[in-house]
Design goal:
By secondary structure, the protein is an alpha+beta fold. It has two domains: 1-32 and 199-229, no CATH class; 34-198. It has three helices and ten strands. A ten-stranded antiparallel β-sheet has the order 3-6-7-8-9-10-1-2-4-5. Strand 7 (120-130) and strand 8 (139-146) form a beta hairpin.
């Protein structure tokens, strides 16, 4: 089989190989790694203007490589690192832009919280609050769950075990369609899982290889065209 890199200078091939190797061995913790969790939940009361449904589907994205507070051990993130999607009854709920309104989003992870069974373990709280205004309707959504021990690596949340969401996860939703039609309910998390995404360096390698392959394909096509003419 003819290599797609045939015809490229050896220095280009060596440079590509060295770049990929460098990315593979670079510490991924050197930069933020967004990680996304998907979840489902059931509200105690249905939302009348959203298909009269009490079924919730959503995702939340956080920075997987945070820097915990050196004094408290807490992990805190805002809308610069946190984002949410929320769907009720098949309808996408309008959420504020996390980058434009970072203070309206929050993610906290607190070590040694007292959980319902009387022992201590980390607790996670995540949510978004959009205050009522003359142009925006109220939206207050939050969810929390306890992380089963042992868990002590607060700088790497890719190993965060969300299986306890179905046992200890709670949800709160307070929203309005308009000032005269308001809704509030608590709910129960029914499932959650980590959405697998490539590590940043792996993704970079795919991009580099894809660009190189595309360039090589064009180069070989031009060479074949010249040979046939």
């Amino acid at each position: 089989m003819t290599s797609i890199w045939k015809g490229f200078p050896m220095r280009f091939q060596l440079s590509l190989a060295m770049t990929c190797a460098s990315l593979l061995f670079t510490n991924t913790n050197a930069s933020a790694t967004p990680i996304t969790f998907a979840f489902t939940a059931q509200l105690e009361s249905p939302v009348s203007w959203l298909g009269n449904s009490n079924q919730v589907n959503g995702t939340f994205t956080i920075n997987g490589d945070p820097i915990p507070d050196p004094h408290t051990g807490w992990v805190e993130q805002d809308g610069r690192e946190v984002s949410l999607t929320l769907e009720i009854g098949g309808v996408q709920v309008s959420l504020p832009d996390s980058q434009a309104n970072p203070s309206q989003y929050h993610f906290t992870m607190m070590p040694n919280a007292l959980n319902p069974n009387g022992s201590r373990s980390p607790v996670v709280n995540i949510g978004v609050v959009r205050p009522h205004s003359s142009t925006e309707s109220l939206l207050d959504f939050s969810m929390s769950f306890f992380v089963p021990p042992p868990f002590d690596d607060y700088s790497n949340l890719r190993n965060l075990d969300t299986s306890s969401l179905t046992a200890t996860g709670t949800l709160f939703l307070n929203m309005e369609e308009n000032p005269d039609n308001r809704y509030a309910s608590i709910g129960k998390i029914t499932s959650s899982y980590l959405v697998n995404t490539p590590e940043p360096n792996t993704l970079s390698i795919f991009v580099i290889l894809g660009m190189g392959a595309a360039a090589a394909s064009r180069r070989n096509a031009r060479a074949k065209s010249r040979n046939s003419s």
